[in-house]
Amino acid sequence: MVELRTPRLRLRRARPDDLEPMHAVLSHPVAMRYWSTTPHEDLAQTEAWLADMIATDGEDFVIEREGRVIGKAGCYSLPEVGYILHPDAWGQGFASEALGAATAHVFAARAVDRLTADVDPRNAASLALLKKLGFAETGRAARTWLIGGEWCDSVYLALDRPATIPRP
């Protein structure tokens, strides 16, 4: 089983016992503001989401900090990256650290030439993080997501495989 370690974090595959901490993230309205769904209303919704994450063959990881689950990062469906952290973990560089490790792992483990991201243009922090990691904007589109009765736009970004990482 793949496990990634950074100086402050452990990234690992999801397990059923991640239900409560992931629900704390996925039910938080601030954390979910720019997510592709509305906040989870009950544990059953998060349980289904988590079962899907466990069953997928993607490169998606739960993020642990000092033994506590604070979010997730990686590719649920290649080649698109995604990440979400509980707001208590924001502003400390954890998202950059986790996503940097996850993207490096994906390029080393999978024969993908490019990773992509779809970000709400109002999510300035996420756009800045992805640009810091080397993602470049490839396009924009209006009214791409209908979430909770609100239309949201998209900024598309991509990160090409670094020349220093050979295809597996």
> What is the helix/strand order?
EEHHEEEHEHEE
Number of helices: 4
Shape: globular
Which structural class do the helices and strands define? alpha+beta
- The fold-level CATH name is Aminopeptidase
Distance between the termini: 18 Å
CATH class equals Alpha Beta
Physical arrangement of strands within the biggest beta sheet: 1-2-3-4-5
Overall description:
This protein has a single domain, classed as Aminopeptidase (3-Layer(aba) Sandwich), CATH 3.40.630. The mean pLDDT is 96. The chain has 168 residues and is an alpha+beta fold. It contains 4 helices and 8 strands; from the N terminus they run ββααβββαβαββ.
Entry keywords:
27% helix; five-stranded antiparallel β-sheet; three-stranded antiparallel β-sheet; 168 residues; Aminopeptidase; alpha+beta; globular
Please specify the SSE layout and strand pairing.
Blueprint: E1 3-5, E2 10-12, H1 19-26, H2 43-55, E3 59-65, E4 68-77, E5 80-85, H3 94-109, E6 114-119, H4 124-132, E7 136-147, E8 150-160
Antiparallel strand pairs: 1-2, 2-3, 3-4, 4-5, 6-8, 7-8
Helix pairs in contact: 1-2
